[in-house]
Design a protein that fits this description.
The protein is α/β, with parallel strands linked by helices. The chain has a single domain, classed as Ribonuclease H-like superfamily/Ribonuclease H (Nucleotidyltransferase, domain 5, 2-Layer Sandwich), CATH 3.30.420. The chain is built from 3 helices and 5 strands. Strands 3-2-1-4-5 form a 5-stranded mixed β-sheet. A hairpin with a 3-residue loop joins strand 1 and strand 2. Helix 1 runs parallel beside helix 3. The radius of gyration is 13 Å and the shape is globular.
């Protein structure tokens, strides 16, 4: 099945949406105390991406071998994920490793797409 995945985050909360052929499910969460008002925007976006993918798999929305187009509104994050570039930020490195593990374990077919911030459907939920 084909999915489109949007995500975003700030210092207070994270949000994501997973669109399939016949549905769109939006979610938002306050950051856990460990991250609340302590993370950068980019760190928060990685947390949102990781939690959103994990949630989608746990809710059986995303299944093994599914195709996912991940819409990213930050060029540096797009480059890190699509070109496998590293980061000096330990939190981001850890999240990238978790995201890669989820993708590999579930044999997901992932396409990263860079989008303008205005086209990120979940930014309004922050």
């Amino acid at each position: 099945m084909e999915h489109i995945f949007f995500f975003d985050g700030n210092s207070k909360r994270i949000t994501w949406t997973i669109q399939t052929n016949n549905s769109s499910i939006e979610q938002k969460r306050e950051h856990a105390d460990i991250y609340l008002n302590k993370v950068t925007i980019q760190q928060s976006k990685y947390i949102a991406m990781h939690v959103g993918l994990f949630w989608g798999i746990g809710r059986f929305i995303i299944k093994d071998k599914d195709s996912i187009t991940i819409k990213i509104d930050k060029k540096s994050m797009f480059d890190q994920l699509s070109k496998n570039e590293s980061s000096s930020d330990e939190l981001i490195k850890t999240r990238m490793r978790f995201i890669t593990q989820l993708i590999d374990q579930r044999k997901l077919k992932v396409n990263y797409e860079l989008v303008d911030k205005e086209k990120n459907l979940v930014s309004k939920l922050l």
